[in-house]
Amino acid sequence: MDLHARRADSFGAQAEAYAEHRPDYPVAAIRWALEPLGTDERLDVLDLAAGTGKLTSVLVAEGHRVTAVEPNEQMLSELVRRVHDVRALPGHAEHIPVPDNTIDAVFVGTAFHWFDQEKALPEIARVLRPGGVLAAMWVEPDPACGWLTELDRLSRSSVETQRHEPVEVMAHPSFTPEERASFPHSHRRDSPEAIAAWINTYSRLLVVDEEERAAITDKVLAYLRGREETSNGPVDVPLLADVFRMVRVSA
Ligand SMILES: C[S@@+](CC[C@H](N)C(=O)[O-])C[C@H]1O[C@@H](n2cnc3c(N)ncnc32)[C@H](O)[C@@H]1O
User: Any idea where the Methyltransferase type domain is (predicted)?
Assistant: First the structure.
């Protein structure tokens, strides 16, 4: 398995920690993504690469009928344990286990960069109704926050190559060109240890050996314990949700 595939499949080994420590998604980003549908009604929504359900639970709370698709068994079991009122199915973006023309919006949370777009885009187009939306979003540290940018630098591992975004989206005849927007979000963490636990759920740290991960965690903790912003009490870590949306055009 090459590094890209190993990283894409790395999350399950830490599924519980992932569910415990990763942030969720801002409602404003979801509503912006759905604007082209021009309705406030309950929609048929697919959360593709749903992981442990961080985005799924916000979609359910928004009142939509949600199907969650996720290839990793451990992530999917965690989702089923934590999120109710959802249809949860094993499957990949390149082969979605859902019939043609049945979905109003496909959401992808912090995972579109793992997809093989040449296969995934036609699959997503197949399940969407005409006028439906594909929306991919990433919640990432706010680059305007100095201590967080330094933390990001300190926590790079030997497999870190480049940051995910902005991900280039292939032009595809079934979709309008993408529109992008960003939304502020935050992630409450009670201690330096809780911030380190969040950082440790990124694939760049999941695929390295324990020795390297422990050395990075020590560095991260020393940094966080030494900073005024992070050493005491709860911190609202500033995040940005970057979103793109594309509309499924009629055949
Ligand atoms: C960073 S996690 C994001 C999970 C969840 N959407 C969230 O926001 O917390 C990336 C997820 O993408 C899944 N994944 C990786 N490659 C995939 C593919 N080709 N098709 C569907 N899911 C994939 C992984 O199993 C993992 O659960």
Answer: 46-135
pLDDT in tens, 160-199: 755 555 688 999 999 999 999 999 999 999 999 999 999 9
Q: Is residue 124 domain-resident?
A: yes
Tens of pLDDT, residue by residue over 36-72, are: 999 989 999 999 999 999 999 999 999 999 999 999 9
Number of separate domains in the chain = 1
Given ligand 1 and candidates 4, 11, 108, 205, which is best to mutate, with the most ligand atoms within 8 Å of its CB?
11
Closest ligand 1 atom to 49 CA: 22
Q: Whose CA is nearest to atom 4 of ligand 1?
A: 51
Whole-number Å distance between alpha carbons of 195 and 182: 23
Residue 58 domain boundaries: 3-142+162-188+239-247
Say if 56 falls within a structural domain: yes
C-alpha 249 to ligand 1 mean position (Å): 26
Letter string b/e over residues 190-224, b meaning 16 or more CB atoms within 10 A of that residue's CB? ebbebbbbbbbbbbbbbbbeeeebeebbeebbebb
Query: 208 in ligand 1 pocket by Cβ < 6 Å?
Result: no
